[in-house]
Amino acid sequence: MPNMTLSLPEDVYRIVKAHNEVRWSEIARRAIEDYARKITLLNAMTENSELNENDIAALDKTVKAGIQNHYKSKASGRKTNSS
Asked: Which of 8, 33, 48, 77 is close enough to 12 for a disulfide, judged by CB 3.0 to 4.6 Å?
């Protein structure tokens, strides 16, 4: 298995050094594996997509506006279509 070197902020490094009972390399390996799997899945889901950056930005704006309206309605006590 290939090796990898990581840089840590000083405060995190002190915590890691204080807990040598923890298998930090195993924790880091699992976290990297999980993230790599997520990226692989996202790539597979989007490889045939015909959306462009403008489409994605428009969809993002629409979704965020809907979420904002939902929570504004909840805060004011009104019912929304989705609740």
From this structure: 8
pTM of the model as a whole: 0.60
Secondary structure of 13-28 in HEC code, one letter for each residue = HHHHHHCCCCCHHHHH
**What are the average pLDDT values for consecutive 10-residue runs of the chain, which has 83 residues?**
94 97 97 98 92 94 96 80 57
DSSP 7-66: ---HHHHHHHHH-TTS-HHHHHHHHHHHHHHHHHHHHHHHTT----HHHHHHHHHHHHHH
